[in-house]
Write a structure and sequence with these properties.
Length: 79
Amino acid sequence: MGSRHSAQTGRWTELFLYKTKGRKFICHQVGRTSWQSEYDRFSGKVCETQEEVKEFFGHRWLSKALYAEASIDDAVEVE
């Protein structure tokens, strides 16, 4: 569905979300760095539901931007 980047100097995060023909979601997160002696970090998960997608990416501003692009409702009900 897209890619989002955080704006931290020297380190940033890229989020990717794909939807398969079988209607599953592929979540991919990359923690990038340009700092010497540090390495990029990769994580991913195949999710069955949008709830699982939100569990994987969380609720930070970068995730919320990705959800908006993918038309995923990120509202949290509070009693």
